[in-house]
Each structure stands twice: as C-alpha cells, then as structure tokens.
Amino acid sequence: MATTEKLHQNYPGQVDAQVHKDHPGVYIPPPLFYIAFFYFSLLLEHDFALGIGFLRRPNQQFIGWVLCLIGVGVGLMTLIQFIRSRNSIVTIKSAHSLQTSGVYRYSRNPLYVSLFFLYFGAAIFWGNWWSFILSPFLVMIMKLYVIKREEKYLRRRFGKEYKLYKKSVRRWF
C-alpha cells in the first residue's frame, strides 16, 4: 500500500492538505518569462535595431507562422493531457500523477518546448534578432528557476518512478 493511502486511512482529512501543500515552488507562471523576454527584445529592437536582414520577408513570415503553429499544437496536446490526467499546469499546485505518455514520451517539458516554438516563431516573423540574442538567458532562467525546482519536486513526489522516467526521456527533445 502506498504511503499516501496509509496516511488516508489513519488521517483522512489531514493528508489532502499535506499533499496539496507540496508543490514545485515556482511562484511566477513560466509563460511570463517568455512574454517578458520577448517584450524586452521588442524594446531593444525599437531602441537599438541591429539592422541585420533576416530572410526574404514572405519566407520569413511563413517560417515564423509554421513555428508558431507547431508551438500551439504541442501546447494544446500538452494541455489536453493535463486535463485528462486531472493534473494542474499551475506550478504552485501538487501533481496527482506523473505525466509519462503522449507528448511526455518525447520531452519532459513539452509545454516549455511549445513556448520556445512560439517565442522563436514570433521572433522570426517580426525579424527580431534581439529575441535570439536573449534566448540563452531565457533558457538559463527557465532551467535554474523553473525546471530545477520542478524536477526536485517530482523526485520528492514520485521517487523511483520519476528517476526512471528522467533516464529514458530527455529534458527538451
């Protein structure tokens, strides 16, 4: 019998509160990092335009749209999977189960991958080089502030099951 089930038998009201208090501790919604970085890149582009041409304009916009559509598609698949599993995408709520199927067979962070597709798609669409220049800092913040906390929480919450999953599926792709 799992530890949580034992606790439910002995302390039925207290366990729910105890389990739901445990969460990754990421208090800033991760999409806000992408939005903030992209907005900052637009300000930089406005004030310090690099003047470097991208692709020919029609190709550039087409590629940008394709990347954005991929991002939306992956994001929707991820959200649907969260809804079906009754897990929350809110990073200050606890997980009921470990996501390992669907898009999670290919990436441990498909929602963040989808946001990167949107970020880069929009950058290409508008020809904003600053988005690319800032992207390593965005990756670093996502890794250190968001993903490391989430992984620590998942190890604590799901133990061996998460360790096995982590060995078999890459973080991004």
UniProtKB/TrEMBL annotation:
In terms of Pfam families, this protein maps to:
PEMT
| GO BP term (any one) | methylation
Q: Where does the protein end up?
A: Endomembrane system
Q: What GO molecular functions are on record for this protein? A: methyltransferase activity
Main localisation: membrane
Q: Does the keyword Lipid biosynthesis apply?
A: no
Q: What is this protein called?
A: Protein-S-isoprenylcysteine O-methyltransferase Ste14
Organism of this sequence: Arachidicoccus rhizosphaerae
Q: What is the lineage of its organism?
A: Bacteria, Pseudomonadati, Bacteroidota, Chitinophagia, Chitinophagales
